Amino acid sequence: MTNLPSVSVIIPVLNGASTIGDTLAGLTHQLASPCDTEIIVVDNGSSDGTPDLVQKFPVTLLGEPKRGPSAARNRGLYAARGEIIAYLDADTLPTRRWLVEIVSPFLDPEIHLVAGRLMGYRPETPAEKFYSRFYVDREQKDASATHFPFAPSANMAVRRSAALAIGGWDEEFRVAQDMEFSYRLLREFKTNIHYQPSALVFLRTRPTDSDLYRQAFKYGQGRAKLWMRYPDVARWNAIRAIGIASRLAIIGMWPLVASAAKTAGRASEEDVLFAKYYRSWNYWSWRGFATMLHHNEWRLD
Question: Is the pTM of this model over 0.90?
Fold first, then answer.
């Protein structure tokens, strides 16, 4: 579509040989794409043959030796030529009109940051079903959050000029980097995030319990890092600590409540299982949060 701005799609990847082929196949079969489009894959030191696979597609392959998704995204950002930068992860599957839908809001010059919609891709295991129900398809809520509204890096688009104006991605953040990036951009440009539900991407979620809880721990670390970086936004104090402790106590009781509701015919076995996973997710997330507050360093790399 000739009236849309030029766009660079950037995908950071580390050992993504099992998934990135599907991501790139989806990108190269888009409908009604902007005429001036480039796809940039930034390899972050893969050892599983990812670069060889990527080179089979009509894309630009770059390397970034500094580990971390923020460093890889910056490598692509500074090399890109598009007016709009669209980001995907290497384990996503964009729908056929994703690109035109994520770019079209930028016809409005007042829009600087767009969040697309994420849905879990064919969740089968209990861990996948929990994550798909709890943590994806909530982008509209995340885009208007009270403290740190954000567009998810697995499905976002931003004006390149705006991204460069704030210095790109903060490479100290290994997790929650999209929250930190969004915060600085919204603060700099006094704007809001535009949510675009028609820009749909499917996300492969963590299949095992251990993968899920590891992810929760890392997410908790990322949120703590944000609170430490921006204490004026989300102050940590005794009142907040008591509130969180109370909430965790209630969450700890949810499986028992759900089981009782199931016995009374008011809940399903799936509801009981979700309550158990939700309790475990919160345990590992807040454990990661506390670990970052105490040590001020990333753990479980």
Answer: yes
